[in-house]
Amino acid sequence: MIIDVHTHIMSPEIAAAKTVYLARDRWFDECYRDPKARFATAESLVASMHTARITRAVVTGFAFADPGLCAASNDYIIEAVRRFPDRLIGLAAVQPNGGDAAVYELERCLKAGLSGVGELLPDGQDFDPASRETMLPLATALQKYGAPLMIHTSEPVGHLYPGKGKTWPPKILELATNFPELKIIAAHWGGGLPFYELMPEVRLALANLYYDTAATTYLYDFRVFRAAALASGVSKILFATDYPLLKQDRLVRRIRGEAGLSPEELDLIMGQNAALLFNLTGPETNI
Ligand SMILES: [Zn+2]
What we know:
The protein is an alpha/beta fold. It has a single domain, classed as Metal-dependent hydrolases (TIM Barrel). It has helices spanning 12-16, 18-24, 26-32, 42-52, 67-83, 100-111, 122-125, 132-145, 169-178, 193-196, 200-205, 216-219, 224-232, 248-258, 263-277; strands spanning 3-8, 56-60, 88-92, 116-120, 149-151, 184-186, 209-212, 237-238. An eight-stranded parallel beta sheet has the order 1-2-3-4-5-6-7-8. The protein is globular and about 45 Å long. Bound molecules: zinc ion.
């Protein structure tokens, strides 16, 4: 069973009106201004999953700064999960600065079949994940439902790229420290946070935090898999592509061939860890 925990799809309406949305959201412009930046639909994602023999994908839209645009993005995720209930697990985009309004949107989306929140973009949505006050309503609700929060993270070092931002490891550590029961998926290898799990107090604070491998090819040498498995433990690493940014079949092949993982480690990273986190039980979907 392979589960890709970080993919993005966009409604055809938003994709068709790209220039309008570029003007309406600074971070959307940062991420999609490049004419080569791709959008995917639910159909193209499911077709790609079929090719790559991926059982399920966690699907997100775009976390706009404006909560109204988040809701529009969420409507398409809800529709996608309804159309492909065996294949897609949906996350809702919300604006944490909205406090109770963010909780209201989360609850609307959970009732409609989504499974958590993500991929939140602190740099684009202009909220501080390290602020206990800002995050309290949303984190409390997520903990109540046992639903995870996926958040973009990036490296305080290295090359720049569109959408990198400054959601660095200290902010994520602070978020996890403020809400120890909250299940967090720190995207893009947590910006290097796994290394600090070699410090006992950091490891303790991050007991409910996971790392996804989204966009790994653009960020790290494939030895990152071994290094992170050593530092944080293999049970915290979740396979992810950031599709359509990376091709799913190619990344699956490369991880199998180049990451230096044992068959048992591969099973955990490629699907078993995510199945536990998202409470996926019952028979595996055969594809
Ligand atoms: Zn991201």
